[in-house]
Every structure is written in structure tokens, then in C-alpha cells.
């Protein structure tokens, strides 16, 4: 058995970057998670891999980054040679690349669920909806008899989503059950298609819908990230950027670094328009936390410490990575402007 790899990874434009990023999840029976935690953490830390991996009796979920050879070794450990045996065979794995380290530290956590829904009747190991390959997704979601639902949280949807997708306006995944109860009806909504960032949330959501009597439930295999990786931009039905849970903040087509940044006070992702708002103050406040004085005071002190560190030529924890990411965004913006002027002339 071989470790899974991304079939189209060689086509990504960032393969010359020094950090390889692996996003992985798999619903699988892991009753021995406590015994697995220590050796997995030791393996990752010994190879300078950073990120977060969540273990639960229902499986594994997480994103990590490191040198390409370290990530390749981890893939072998998880899927071939390590203590997991064959239990993670067929895991959903996506690779991308980054110029700077996306994570600051390594964490292996044991939790009751790898994605929290708090619905005991749901078991993706037993029942899930129909997987739809990214190449077939456009044809499905353009059908008039299909209800398209974004299972992500509101701040993620705000950065980008598929055309005509319904936004549940949830702040956490556990609220998805309430949305289904109030807005979806198995007697009317005969065909429901769902998607999320990497596939894990909509896989669990599809299992939940089936448990509630919905007959035909579909979900995007590999999530938005796989779609952005393999579907050409000119054929894409995804508008905007995809939020990711690391210091890259967002990615676009080809999994290129996006333009979004994070508010350091409330952690809400910010678009260019958000950063032009009167309530935005770099490192201190944004339109989404304008009235939270306590957050602003804490963020202002943090920003002061960062500024002092930069004046002394030092990095403030992971802020060197943030600075590099912002520099690359500005370079990307300048390049786009040069291309626009050249095409116009």
C-alpha cells in the first residue's frame, strides 16, 4: 500500500516553495487514540513539522506543514508504516506549498469528534452521501432541481462561495442542525448538494441529512480546496477566495496565496474592502469588532510589542511569517497592476 498523493500536485505553481502543506482527514475507527497521540507528536516534532492534527475515536483531521521530505515521511507514517496500520487507507489528502511557514507550533490533540456536530446518530463510517468529483461538480450544481448549501461558517462564506449557494449564517458547525430543521425539508428538497473547505464537514453533514430522511444527498469530494486545485479558473463556478485555517488566511485558484488578512483583535478574515473601512486600524480593530474596546486594548498592546520588535530587528513570535505573507500579497498586487497597464496599453 502506498501513501496517497495529489494527482495534479505537479501542476501547482508553487512547487518550488520550501514548505509543503498537507491537509488530511479520514473517518475511521480509532479506539486507541490516546496511545497514538504521543508517538505521532514525537514523529512530527522530530522532523520540525508544525500544525495541528486532531485524533478522535471516529478518525483523524488536520493540516501540517514542513520540509517536503518531512511531509512525505509523515504520509508514509500515517498510511503505510506507522501504528495506524491500514486504518487510514483512502484518506482525503491535499498537498500545497508555501513560501513561509504557515504554522508556529505542532499540536496533536485528542477530542471526542474530529469535526464537532454533537449528533450521536451520525456515523460517516456507516453512511454518507454521494461523493462528487470536482470535475463533475459544475454539472450538478447547475441543475434546477438541486439545492446547493454551503456548510461553512459565515465568516468563511463572506470571502467566497459557489454561485447560487445558500448561506446557513452559522458561527459554528454545531448550528448546522438548527439550519436544517428550519430551512430544509426532506419532502420538498429531494436533492441536496453540499460543500466545505476540504470535504470533512459536508461529509458529516451529508450523514446527518440522511439520518433526517433526506433521500439524495451529494457532497464535493475534497472540498473547495480540491476544486480550486484541479478545475481550470476559466471553468470555475467559485467566486472569491477560500478561507484556510492557517497564516495564509485564504487561497485562490491553483491554491495560490489569496489577498485576505486577519484582524488581530477578533481573528475575522478581512478583504481589501474591509481594510479600506474607517473602522480598520492595522493590528488593532476592524469593521467586525469596532465596538469591542477590550479586544482593541489587548490588540493595541500586542501591536506595540510587534512594532518594538521590528524596530530592534527581531521577530515577534510568528509575525515574521505574517510580514512575509503581506509582502507577497503586495508584490502580487503590484504585478497584477503592471499586467493591467500593459494589456491596456
Explain what you see.
It catalyses: uridine(34) in tRNA + AH2 + O2 = 5-hydroxyuridine(34) in tRNA + A + H2O. The protein has three domains: 9-110, 2-Layer Sandwich (Alpha-Beta Plaits), CATH 3.30.70; 130-230, 3-Layer(aba) Sandwich (Oxidized Rhodanese, domain 1); 259-334, no CATH class. The chain is globular, with a radius of gyration of 21 Å. The model is unreliable at 6-13 (pLDDT under 50). It has 345 residues and is α/β, with parallel strands linked by helices. It contains ten helices and 15 strands. Strand 2 (50-56) and strand 3 (59-66) form a beta hairpin. Helices cover 34% and strands 19% of the residues.
In a few lines, what is going on in this structure?
By secondary structure, the protein is an alpha/beta fold.
List keywords for this structure.
345 residues, alpha/beta, Alpha-Beta Plaits, Oxidized Rhodanese, domain 1, 3 domains, five-stranded mixed sheet, four-stranded parallel sheet, 34% helix, globular
Amino acid at each position: 500500500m502506498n501513501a496517497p498523493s495529489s494527482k495534479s500536485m505537479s501542476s501547482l505553481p508553487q512547487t518550488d516553495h520550501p514548505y509543503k502543506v498537507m491537509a488530511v482527514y479520514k473517518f475511521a475507527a480509532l479506539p486507541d487514540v490516546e496511545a497514538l497521540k504521543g508517538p505521532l507528536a514525537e514523529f512530527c516534532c522530530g522532523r520540525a513539522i508544525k500544525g495541528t492534527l486532531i485524533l478522535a475515536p471516529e478518525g483523524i483531521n488536520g493540516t501540517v506543514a514542513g520540509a517536503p521530505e518531512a511531509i512525505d515521511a509523515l504520509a508514509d507514517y500515517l498510511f503505510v508504516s506507522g501504528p495506524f496500520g491500514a486504518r487510514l487507507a483512502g484518506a482525503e489528502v491535499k498537498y500545497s506549498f508555501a513560501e513561509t511557514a504557515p504554522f508556529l507550533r505542532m499540536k496533536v490533540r485528542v477530542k471526542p469528534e474530529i469535526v464537532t456536530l454533537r449528533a450521536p446518530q451520525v456515523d460517516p463510517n456507516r453512511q454518507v452521501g454521494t461523493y462528487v468529483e470536482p470535475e463533475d461538480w459544475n454539472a450538478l450544481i447547475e441543475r434546477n432541481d438541486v439545492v446547493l448549501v454551503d456548510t461553512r461558517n459565515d465568516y468563511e462564506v463572506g470571502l467566497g462561495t459557489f454561485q447560487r449557494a445558500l448561506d446557513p449564517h452559522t458561527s459554528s458547525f454545531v448550528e448546522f442542525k438548527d439550519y436544517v430543521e428550519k430551512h430544509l425539508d426532506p419532502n420538498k428538497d429531494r436533492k441536496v448538494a453540499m460543500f466545505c473547505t476540504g470535504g470533512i464537514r459536508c461529509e458529516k453533514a451529508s450523514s446527518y441529512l440522511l439520518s433526517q430522511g433526506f433521500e439524495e444527498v451529494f457532497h464535493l469530494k475534497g472540498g473547495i480546496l480540491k476544486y480550486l486545485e484541479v478545475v481550470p479558473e476559466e471553468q470555475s463556478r467559485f467566486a472569491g477566495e477560500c478561507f484556510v485555517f492557517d497564516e495564509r488566511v485564504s487561497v485562490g485558484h491553483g491554491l495560490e496565496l489569496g489577498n485576505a488578512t486577519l484582524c488581530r483583535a477578533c481573528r475575522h478574515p478581512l478583504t481589501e474592502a474591509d481594510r479600506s473601512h474607517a473602522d480598520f486600524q492595522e493590528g488593532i480593530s476592524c469593521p467586525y469588532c469596532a465596538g469591542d474596546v477590550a479586544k482593541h486594548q489587548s490588540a493595541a498592546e500586542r501591536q506595540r510589542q510587534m512594532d518594538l520588535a521590528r524596530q530592534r530587528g527581531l521577530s515577534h513570535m510568528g509575525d515574521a511569517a505574517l510580514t512575509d505573507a503581506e509582502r507577497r500579497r503586495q508584490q502580487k498586487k503590484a504585478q497584477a497592476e503592471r499586467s493591467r497597464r500593459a494589456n491596456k496599453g
